[in-house]
Design goal:
By secondary structure, the protein is an alpha+beta fold. It has two helices and five strands; from the N terminus they run αβββαββ. It has a single domain, classed as Trna Endonuclease, Chain: A, domain 1, CATH 3.40.1350.
C-alpha cells in the first residue's frame, strides 16, 4: 500500500478545484498565496469578482466531511490573508470579493466535488 502525504492530497485537490472552476469560466490570478496572516489556495476571477477559494479534500469521511473542517479560526485566517492580498494589489475597497469553498470527498461514484459559492462573509 502506497503512503500518500498530506501535501500530495492537497495539491491533487487544488488542481481538481482549479480545473473545475476554469470549466465554469473562472480565471486564475494566483495559486497558494502565502503571507504572515495565512494561505489562500486559489485566487480566481469570476467576472467582476475576486474569489478567494479554500480547497478541502477528504479521502475518508468517518472523521467528518471536508466542509466541517473549516473552523471560525480558519475563516479568520483566510479573511486576514485576503485583506493582505487586496492591500498588496491596491485593490482593497476597489473590487468585489468573496470566499468560496471547494470540498472534494468520496462518493459512491468516485470523488465528488462540491462548490459552495460565497461560503462565508466578513463580519463588519
Amino acid at each position: 500500500m502506497e503512503i500518500v502525504k498530506p501535501q500530495q492530497i492537497g495539491k491533487y485537490g487544488e488542481q481538481e478545484a482549479l480545473a473545475y472552476l476554469q470549466k465554469l469560466g473562472f480565471s486564475l490570478i494566483q495559486e497558494n498565496y502565502r503571507c504572515y496572516q495565512g494561505e489562500i489556495d486559489l485566487i480566481m476571477q469570476d467576472q467582476d469578482d475576486i474569489v478567494f477559494v479554500e480547497v478541502r479534500v477528504r479521502h475518508r469521511i468517518d472523521f467528518g466531511n471536508a466542509l466541517e473542517s473549516i473552523t471560525r479560526n480558519k475563516m479568520n485566517k483566510l479573511i486576514r490573508a485576503a485583506t493582505h492580498f487586496l492591500q498588496w494589489k491596491k485593490w482593497l475597497n476597489k473590487v468585489n470579493s468573496r470566499f468560496d469553498v471547494i470540498a472534494i470527498q468520496p462518493a459512491k461514484s468516485g470523488m465528488q466535488i462540491e462548490w459552495i459559492k460565497n461560503a462565508f462573509t466578513v463580519d463588519r
